[in-house]
Amino acid sequence: MNKTLRKLWLGDLGALRAHLKRLDPEARRLRFGGVTTDDFIDAYVDTAFRLDATIFGVFIDGEIRASAELRGIFGGMAPDAEAAFAVEGDWQDQGLGSELMDRILTTAQNRGVTRLHMICLTENARMRHIAGKFGARLSFAQGEVAGEVTPAGPTPMSLLDEFVHDAQGFVTAVFDWRR
Ligand SMILES: CC(C)(COP(=O)(O)OP(=O)(O)OC[C@H]1O[C@@H](n2cnc3c(N)ncnc32)[C@H](O)[C@@H]1OP(=O)(O)O)[C@@H](O)C(=O)NCCC(=O)NCCS
After folding, report:
1. Nearest C-alpha neighbor of 23 from the set 68, 86, 73
2. For the segment 82-118, what is each residue's pLDDT rounded down to a tens digit?
3. Chain-centre distance of CA 75, in angstroms?
4. Of 16, 18, 35, 167, which alpha carbon lies 20 to 30 A from 10's?
């Protein structure tokens, strides 16, 4: 099995679209809230990189099977940003969501984000468990849980960590495209 976790670029839009459309109705509801049609996913992916977002994907044997998005809110990235995650059903409970959370937190830290918001439904025990594992403070309102993590400020190590992962991701992406 060939597995790569890296930032997505415009050339990955088709793979991101296919990944999100493979989510079953329950995963779509938990990720986007409400009924999520293929048309909604198309519209969402069309704007994905226009709105100040950093998106990561986990490629397994060339297909994206899990993704996470970091997006600025209140008009910019810092100090508040929002994170959202999606792992395809057959790939859940194998640590991909936690790996993505780790990368999102480093990226948020390097952008000077001091409050990272995650909104998930109260019944989403998996997401609540992961948020708790990474030290999120959770507050409950109207069937949704808002998780708030406070990343530390950027450090030389966190900047190096992102740089090294980006460099590896670039090599892998070029390799994937040429294949
Ligand atoms: C939530 C989601 C992102 C988690 O990703 P994942 O790859 O399955 O998560 P991981 O495998 O990294 O971790 C799952 C953790 O939850 C735990 N878990 C699984 N089922 C659980 C349950 N019913 N109650 C509590 N914890 C549970 C696992 O034991 C594991 O914990 P551990 O790492 O301490 O062993 C993924 O399941 C998903 O995409 N769900 C649908 C969409 C969604 O809910 N998105 C989040 C909204 S932003």
Report:
1. 86
2. 889 999 999 999 999 999 999 998 998 888 888 788 7
3. 19
4. 35
* Cβ atoms of 106 and 158 closer than 8 Å: yes
Give pLDDT, residue 137. 64
Best residue among 126, 130, 133 to mutate for probing ligand 1, ranked by most atoms within 8 Å of CB: 126
Could you report the per-residue pLDDT of 34-62, keeping only the tens digit for each? Answer: 788 999 999 999 988 776 789 999 999 99
How far, in Å, is the centroid of ligand 1 from the Cα of 94?
9
Range of the structural domain that residue 85 is part of: 3-178
Residue 33's closest CA among 146, 137, 113, 129?
A: 146
Which CATH number characterizes residue 88's domain? 3.40.630.30
User: pLDDT over 90 for what percent of the chain?
Assistant: 43
Q: Tell me the C-alpha distance between 115 and 102, whole Å.
A: 15
Report how far ligand 1's centroid is from the alpha carbon of 56 (Å): 17
Number of domains into which the chain is organized: 1
